[in-house]
## 1
Amino acid sequence: MRRADQIAFMNPRNTDPTSPDQRRDLQVADDRASQRHTSDHLANERTYLAWIRTSISVIGLGFVVAKFSVWIRELSVSMGRATPIRHSGLSMPLGIGLMILGGLLAVTAAWRYHAVKAAILNGQSAAAERTTLVVSIVVVAIAVSLIAYMLVTA
């Protein structure tokens, strides 16, 4: 008996990579890894879509806030007010700022999607501590600004 045949005979599991057992085992392992990556990629896409929905909402809110001053001016003219309101106050710049923020959120969403996708493909974690902190600070700043604006104009 040749040496290779003796080793194969003594080894209960055939070491030939082309054996049906090993091909099946490799296929099962590949399928499990593929399913895990598929789940990760789908979760990444759901997160991206949530960011996009949020950015669309912020853009819409900005539009409504910016147009609020136009509506107030038209209302004062239609009520026959002697001196129509000519300035928009802070609603126009605030609305434009919200629309810009919505656009920046969409760009951030695309950047995060691609960063997480690359991390998934490399088998790394894609925690977004810095992005989460920055977005949270911006949202709190907007909330404080809106509260201050409401208190000043009330």
Note: The mean pLDDT is 79.
## 2
Amino acid sequence: MQVLMNGIYNKFTGSTGAGSIYALLGGRVYPTEAPQEAAFPYSVYNLISDVPEYTFNETIENAVIQFNIFDDDKSVTNINTDFTALTTLYDWSTLTITGYTSVYMKRELSFVTREEDVWNYMIQYRLVFQKN
């Protein structure tokens, strides 16, 4: 659903202050897949699931979005800072989604791993939004 992906990206690019996830990642957030030569740190976001729910005369979308933050810094400190900035922006936020009203965005899962000297912080959100 492209309008949802646009809403996520627009929220990210609208948060440009010092200490924001945009500033910490240098603006590097990519839908689905990062370019092979992307500089660290960066984030990728994916639509995992999008299921419509029909209640009487309303259409409600129930979606799951996953963010992955990648960083090659040796210390876990930077990726934890990135995680805090991302969750500060998106936890219980509302998005501007063309043709829909955002109901909520709730974090459901997160964990950090390190493989081949690269940290990967995975954060998953459930979004509920209603067709206008």
Note: Helices lie at 2-13, 21-24, 77-90.
